[in-house]
Amino acid sequence: MASLLTSIVLTLLAAIASSEAIDHLRKTPPLNIFEMGMYTPVRMDTSKSKSPKPLVIISPQEAGVYPILYFVHGFDIPNYEYTQLFNFIASHGIIVVAPMLFTHFGIIPIYLPSHQQEIDDAANVANWLASYINTAEPSILPKQVTANIDMFAISGHSRGGKTAFALVLGYTKKTTLNVKVSALLAVDPVAGGKLGPFKHPTIPHILTTKADSLNISIPATIIGTGKGTICTPKGLNHAQFYKECVQSSYFVVSNYGHCDMLNDGNALIKTMCGSGKRGTYDIMRRTLGGIMVAFIDAYFGGRPKAYNEILLNPSLAPTKLHPVEDKGLPQQYYDA
């Protein structure tokens, strides 16, 4: 009997150890998903990196193996204006990498690529990361931190959200994306502008105007904002992306606007694009970041509880989420 009990205990301990290894040391309790996590976010010095484009990298400081969130900035919005959001996400055990796909001199843009060029540039950087994120000299990650390239999620805001879709759907022209993307998180994606009654979708045309026409074969979520203005025109915004996705979940942060997840400050662009109450933008970042972390946890961590709870009870979020919908995701999201 003693031998049998010893065997059972050892088996249980081995199972626990295996589970912890698969979970990549990420243990954020679901109830804290909308608060800063247990890891210490650190912004890496990438000034001497040989990346094709400048990078912002914010990583957990603690030793471990972590998934990657590759984040594409919005049109003419510097990648460093999202660092407060990135800090939140990294604090939950996720390495955030954000390329800068245009060039500024001070506040003056001196290189704004076409959208097709932006898509190709984003693919180039992603390919470079796949080869060098763990081996670059000088290092672009903290000591004893490893990026799991097999857990590569792609995200983007505004036009960057459309870029994320374009990469997943294979819309590169001069470059082939060689990275296996395992999840898609689009933040208030926009596919163009509008002048009067006329829509002006950016090229390449991703949206088709037809429901369920975008066949995304990986888990996807779309997170929109409720205070949209000229920055998120109807027919080219988050609602249209969700309508056209065959498979996706969908959240709208009702009381905040298109640029409210940016760092504190940035008052002009927040006001222009519709904004929530001043001084409360941390609530927007925690809500958006919490959904993103829960989504990545569900798919990469095998822990769908927090994500399912948000879908079933959106009032758990720090601010109003409406609508919240789900067209279906892989079964592991629903297996507790």
Instruction: Name the shape in a single word.
Output: globular
The total beta strand count reads 13
Number of helices: 8
Estimated share of beta-strand residues = 15-25%
Main sheet summary: 9 strands, mixed
Radius of gyration: 20 Å
Q: Which strand order does the major sheet show? A: 1-2-4-3-7-8-11-12-13
Pick out its properties.
336 residues; nine-stranded mixed β-sheet; two-stranded antiparallel sheet; 13 strands; globular
Describe the model.
This protein is an alpha/beta fold and 336 residues long. Helices cover 29% and strands 22% of the residues. Strands 1-2-4-3-7-8-11-12-13 form a 9-stranded mixed β-sheet, sandwiched between helices. Strands 5-6 form a two-stranded antiparallel sheet. It has a two-stranded antiparallel ribbon with strand order 9-10. Strand 5 (103-105) and strand 6 (108-111) form a beta hairpin. 47% of the residues are buried.
Briefly summarize what is shown.
The protein is α/β, with parallel strands linked by helices. It has helices at 2-22, 83-90, 115-132, 159-169, 238-244, 267-272, 281-300, 305-312; strands at 41-43, 55-60, 64-72, 95-99, 103-105, 108-111, 145-157, 183-187, 192-195, 198-201, 220-225, 249-253, 321-326.
